[in-house]
């Protein structure tokens, strides 16, 4: 049947814009093609019945048919003999060895694709009922329609077969026919190749994903599911169940609603993706089943279809194209035919199109990477001198430039993007304030399930400790500095006190010491200050636990950068293990307004500290298996991007804003900040002490120096009749101490007498 196949040359010719007529000679009425609406039933002796339009009810007309003479019949037969029946099976050599996409889009006429031509094509194809483009040439132009033939497509072709060229031709051809308001692309190249480099800059492309790993694969699925949910809700609100019936596409809808664009998701090397991420492919099939009526189309391409093309994929991909494949089994998986396994290696781009069980056509894929041919010098072509397509070097570059310029010239409302871009690798502090940023935000969360962003926030008012878990260079120290800078901006020094213990030697924490809220930035080598700070924090914890008014005390945020390094730190300066006392602060502090931010590298003792933190942000780890320390899976570990983190509680990935040294230098001229944590001075005069000696009856209190643990006054109590012994080795300060005691005694008893015996 010459007209049974939609892609048959005869049917394509008759449905084209060329004026044409068809005459069919059939033996029975049942053999008349449906395209033939005018029918003549011929009876004996040239009598017959004429039906002008078989699609309507009678009347029929009785007619007497005229014959022709022998000479006329011979003349007509000779003219018909010169015609070739395109449906007769021919050798593969009748298919052209190569063809350019530009020539096919321009209907085989010479010239270049310009922005004016693209604008004209967009206007001609402003319909929701088709999504078609020409792919190549067989016995005529070969086109595919993702609406009529799809909605999903399966493409197979081994290395060097022209598969990447076919994908580019498909994307470029669709972009040339349909404007971005009607069509969007998401391009996925699993192996991170260069297949879609040129197509990525098309205004239709709303997402470009390369080097897909577990996290990006899950994000892609979440984004597609969110898009399907949005489309279902939007079509329901418009009172239709299918995108084809969208009233906004026909100009009948609400003026505030934009037409819903069709979304074509092109995935190259999906077989490798299925082998490494099997759950991803199963989810894609589910999306394909739901996307049929929602205007979502999947184009799956692979080099090795064997074992990957399941019955579910076959059931959802009516449109299949096979280029050269390695064996007949692969060819049958795609098009149920052996021919693609026999295509010559020397003929890249040779393909077979399958639309149904008996509809196949062999054709040559149009190439879009050939060099732009100069115009025929014998023809005069008027083109815009500013058209960027005129300077392009390849047909694809020329087409992309023309499409971009046509889009730039179009005057239309802002379009909804069907795909949310991934988080940037760097989130600059400058210009970070915006509508999506909440007060106190230190970064952005990626929420693909909602196709939205959320602010990354932490506040000591949550009464929860925060653990920043990551390897060196993952951004934990910078995150700590950013958090402290934001806390300093939002809190009065009288309401918030900050202390920092640094075991890594990071200089970026130096600026924190300039904050009016900061009592100390203590390095791990400053044992005296370190012990004094821990004593202060533990003492404050005990005081607040013994009091009922701790909620009226300033909030205390203490930070440790490199918590595991403190585990075994203990010496004569420290009253017990610092690690044990800090773990107590972690466990008991939040209840009385003492919260912690700790940066932890995986190692011995890290799990105990992490378990005391209700909020956990996971950064990149050198060993992914360490993710179990925070309750995450190894595949959840963020990429090696400084500041990229996973909030373990919510499962959301985020990017922390880059710390700015200027933002950390917050010297707020307000009182109420914490007392600094200082070291014991090398020398002290009696005049520096807060008060002089005191006498109460026979008891004399002599202030002779400062105490070690809190730098408060050191008081020597001498009762009546008692004696004081000062002991020490040579040059230890015995004589100086005696002079200090004598001077303090003289100040306390000005009428008394001091007798010095120098022995």
Short description:
25% of the residues lie in helices and 19% in strands. By secondary structure, it is an alpha/beta fold.
Structure commentary:
The strands form 4 sheets. This protein has a 10-stranded mixed β-sheet. A 10-stranded mixed β-sheet has the order 15-14-23-22-21-16-20-19-17-18, with helices on both faces. It has 759 residues and is of the alpha/beta class. The termini are far apart. The longest helix is centred in the N-terminal third of the chain and has 24 residues. About 2% of the residues have low confidence.
The neighbouring-strand order within the major sheet is 5-4-13-12-11-6-10-9-7-8
CATH top level of the largest domain?
A: Alpha Beta
SS-based class: alpha/beta
* Structure summary, number of beta strands: 26
Annotated CATH homologous superfamily of the largest domain: P-loop containing nucleotide triphosphate hydrolases
Sequence stretches where pLDDT stays below 50 over 5 or more residues: 89-93, 385-390, 664-669
